[in-house]
Amino acid sequence: xxxxxxARQTALHLASLTGGDDVTRLAAARLLSRLSPVxxxxxxxxxxxxxxxxxxxxxxxxxxxxxALEREAAQIxxxxxxxxxxxxxxxxxxxTMFASGPAAQEYDEDAAKRADAKLFTQSxxxxxxxxxxxxxxxxxxxxxxxxxPEVVRNVLINPRLTEELVVRIAARRPxxxxxxxxxxxxxxxxxxxxxxxxxxxxxxxxPDVGTKIVPLLSLADLKELSRDNGVHEALREQARxxxxxxxxAR
Length: 250
What we know:
The protein has 16 helices and no strands. By secondary structure, the protein is mainly α. It has two domains: 1-101 and 207-212 and 219-250, no CATH class; 109-205, no CATH class. Helix 10 runs parallel beside helix 12 (177-185). The radius of gyration is 19 Å and the shape is globular.
């Protein structure tokens, strides 16, 4: 079973990798896939303990692991079992990383499409190209409110996009879940604390994604989230659990 020292070495290894977020996420997925479900659960427990103990490299590895659990689940055959194992082992900080079901609020897909149709008359192909290449900040901001995730995906790679606008997209309400998930999948923007916060506090974000973001928030954000009745109950409970984990480390 992985010890805290094993977790420390794992965190140092993942933090030392070059090549960006995608590289660390895939490395984390491969590591988890090689472990037994029980050992994987224990490793995640130790990584969380290191994060709240102030070991900075663990923050990088926790981000890699949570993103791997959401995006690379196919590479981790036992991923669906981890929540149950964490429950049996009484590791709530791991158990609460997994949630399912609809978001706290939902924006009807047909209503979203009608709203897009009122804003945009061009073809989807034209909008995607414009989103990726436009130099006009006003046009970029206009395209950023699209509900179509393909348009938003191209907005996110526009070199003129600013963090301020991404935060606005992440916090937008009502919102379809797909554009919000695109932001979480963006290696350029999902590492930004302000973007993570905006996503986590958005009641339209699916809880299975939200519970992968919450462990990456600051203590101040966790305190606020734990009291926010607008977000999914799974995220509030997770914030409360993590605050309990953090308390002995203070």
